[in-house]
Amino acid sequence: MKYGKLYAIIALVGIIVGSYWVINWQANRINSLTDINKKLAVALEEQKSINTDYQARIMRLNQLDIQYTQELANAKNEISRLRDISERHPERVYIKAECPKVKTTPATSLAYATTARPTDTAIRNYWLLRERIAESELMIKGLQDYIRVECVN
């Protein structure tokens, strides 16, 4: 019976030491997981902040896009309206033009008198150039605003 009590005490000490070791290991693991969780929480908050900032930037750019798209549509509509008016009433279109001078003096000056009118191709090119100038101007303004809003600030 002496040995039975001794084995029981040794078993009890072994259980206590084993339990202490398991509890210590679990506590270290819990502390490690808590640290990882804190780091992940900080990273998550940073990502939320980045996403919020990104959404605000997208909204600003969207507003710029809407503004300049609308201005471009308005400019194209105005050019189209002017083109329609000029086609219906060509006598109201004023384009600075010069008539070529005749080197010889005719007997009557009305013999060579013609109205100074541009060719149909010149008129088409005029409207095309005017439309492209409006597009380019609004593109440049849009890019300048983009740089001002996103890059400078």
Essential attributes:
transmembrane, mainly alpha, 78% helix, membrane, Lysis protein, 2 helices, I-spanin, transmembrane helix, rod-shaped
User: Over all CA atoms, what is the radius of gyration?
Assistant: 43 Å
State the order of secondary-structure elements, H for helix, E for strand.
Answer: HH
Silhouette: rod-shaped
Q: What kind of oligomer do you see?
A: single chain
- Mean pLDDT over the full residue set: 83
Protein name: Lysis protein
Pfam families: Phage_lysis
Transmembrane segments: 6-23
Keywords: Membrane, Transmembrane, Transmembrane helix
Question: Could you outline the blueprint of secondary structure elements for this entry?
Answer:
Elements: H1 2-88, H2 120-152
Describe this structure in words.
The termini are far apart. This protein is an all-alpha fold. It has helices at residues 2-88, 120-152. α1 (2-88) runs antiparallel to α2 (120-152).
Write a brief structural summary.
The chain is built from 2 helices and no strands. It is 78% helix and 0% strand.
